[in-house]
């Protein structure tokens, strides 16, 4: 098979996507720019896109002439997540194994990115959610801007922050990761920089200039790449209403052992703190799937003590149980209520937190009882993994 470094973009697309045009490849000297190209779907990752990205990343790592990767989205989003509607539909029509295969490939891609030997610069223009975080936050450079909107909204869908999110959320300052992962709170570019999810902030009108400079790069030296991005960067101030200015409250509440205790702590704060953040957090937690909240909290807490590979392996077990509907079918109900019927009135089962027992939560971390199922086997790679370093 031809290398992505050869030929024009059309050839690359035909090699690496069963749906032509969903991932565009631009070659400029030693730089390859991967463009997520489903703008009408906010660049939600289809199965073809995930497969194509994985093949590109794998091939470029072996290609000596390729020294830098840029990842960006077409239109008003970087990437709004994985195409979970496609996954849910396929499971309803066929088998849970389609969903398992989708996440298997996606998590492998996340791992390759997290351990990549060459620098990756993700230009986070617009929406960055779920799977979009998976193809960017694990990379070395994450450039946020004035219109960036980041969120991990999975608990509202009956899912949990996956794509290795238990690794990077658990490494944010204090218990900010629990806050972001459980409530689905939206962060802007300044907040992403402040908490360490972004490495740089570049004003929107300077992003094209940054991209043009990066396309002229002929090195894989991360210090040289960082120096180029620094030339266009600013240090924005977070808004006064930002959760980053409420870290004392967040740490006090989201450090609690259980979801019930977190909600109780927030409710105790509410009367004495005239703060929309506390009210919004309570509302989000009350609306989310109780099962999702409990497995998400357990996942993030486990992630604190695990490598990125260990997090992805555990999350793969969890997502397979979700796809199978072993202990709850909240994922399918969430997709129905939010994405299909759009009545935004999911009927969670079980409907309350006290009905989601610790024993059931633990089962999500166990192997799937199916002779055809296998754990996520990740390749042995050199130690190029990066930790999220908080900028506080």
Characterize the structure shown.
InterPro entries: ClpP/crotonase-like_dom_sf, ECH_dom, HIBYL-CoA-H. Pathway: Amino-acid degradation; L-valine degradation. It catalyses: 3-hydroxy-2-methylpropanoyl-CoA + H2O = 3-hydroxy-2-methylpropanoate + CoA + H(+). One of its GO terms (biological process) is L-valine catabolic process. This is 3-hydroxyisobutyryl-CoA hydrolase. The chain has a single domain, classed as 2-enoyl-CoA Hydratase, Chain A, domain 1, CATH 3.90.226. With 392 residues, the chain is of the alpha/beta class. A hairpin with a 2-residue loop joins strand 1 and strand 2. It has 17 helices and 10 strands. The strands form 2 sheets. It has a 6-stranded mixed β-sheet, sandwiched between helices. The N and C termini lie far apart (46 Å).
Q: Could you say what the CATH topology is called?
A: 2-enoyl-CoA Hydratase, Chain A, domain 1
Secondary-structure-derived class: alpha/beta
Poorly predicted runs of 5 or more residues: 1-19
CATH C-level category: Alpha Beta
- The second-level CATH architecture is Alpha-Beta Complex
Instruction: Name the beta content range.
Output: 5-15%
Oligomer: single chain
Q: From N to C, what is the helix and strand string?
A: HEEHEEHHEEHEEHHEHEHHHHHHHHH
Q: How would you characterize the largest beta sheet? A: 6 strands, mixed
Radius of gyration: 20 Å
Query: How many distinct folded domains?
Result: 1
Average of pLDDT: 90
How would you sum up the global shape?
A: globular
First CA to last CA: what distance? 46 Å
Number of strands: 10
Count the DSSP helices: 17
Q: How are strands sequenced across the largest beta sheet?
A: 1-2-3-5-7-10
Q: Portion of residues in helices?
A: 40-55%
CATH superfamily: 2-enoyl-CoA Hydratase, Chain A, domain 1
Keywords: Hydrolase
Pathway: Amino-acid degradation; L-valine degradation
Pfam families: ECH_2 (PF16113)
Enzyme class: hydrolase
């Amino acid at each position: 098979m031809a290398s992505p470094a050869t030929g024009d973009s059309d050839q690359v697309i035909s090699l690496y996507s069963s749906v032509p045009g969903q991932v565009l490849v631009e070659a400029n000297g030693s730089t390859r720019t991967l463009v997520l190209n489903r703008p009408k779907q906010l660049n939600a990752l289809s199965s073809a896109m995930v497969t194509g990205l994985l093949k590109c990343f794998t091939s470029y790592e072996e290609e000596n002439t390729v020294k830098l990767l840029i990842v960006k989205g077409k239109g008003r989003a970087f990437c709004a997540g994985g195409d979970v509607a496609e996954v849910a539909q396929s499971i309803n029509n066929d088998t849970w194994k389609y969903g398992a295969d989708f996440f298997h490939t996606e998590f492998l891609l996340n791992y390759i990115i997290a351990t990549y030997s060459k620098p990756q610069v993700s230009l986070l223009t617009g929406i960055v959610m779920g799977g979009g975080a998976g193809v960017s936050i694990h990379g070395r450079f994450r450039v946020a801007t004035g219109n960036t909107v980041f969120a991990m909204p999975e608990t509202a869908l009956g899912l949990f922050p996956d794509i290795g999110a238990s690794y990077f959320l658990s490494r944010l300052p204090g218990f900010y990761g629990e806050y972001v992962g459980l409530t689905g709170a939206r962060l802007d570019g300044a907040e992403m920089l402040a908490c360490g999810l972004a490495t740089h902030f570049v004003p929107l009108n300077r992003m094209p200039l940054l991209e043009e400079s990066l396309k002229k790069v002929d090195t894989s030296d991360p210090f040289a790449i960082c120096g180029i991005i620094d030339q266009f960067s600013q240090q924005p101030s977070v808004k006064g209403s930002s959760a980053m200015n409420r870290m004392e409250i967040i740490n006090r509440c989201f450090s609690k052992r259980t979801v019930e205790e977190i909600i109780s702590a927030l409710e105790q704060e509410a009367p004495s703190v005239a703060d929309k953040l506390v009210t919004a957090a309570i509302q989000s937690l009350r609306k989310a799937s109780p099962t999702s909240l409990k497995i998400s909290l357990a996942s993030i807490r486990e992630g604190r003590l695990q490598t990125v590979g260990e997090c992805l392996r555990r999350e793969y077990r969890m997502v397979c149980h979700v796809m199978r509907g072993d202990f709850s079918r909240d994922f399918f109900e969430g997709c129905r209520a939010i994405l299909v019927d759009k009545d935004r009135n999911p009927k969670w089962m079980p409907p309350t937190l006290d009905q989601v027992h610790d024993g059931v939560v633990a089962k999500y971390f166990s192997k799937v009882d199916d002779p055809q199922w296998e754990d996520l086997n990740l390749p042995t790679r050199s130690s190029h993994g990066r930790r999220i370093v908080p900028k506080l």
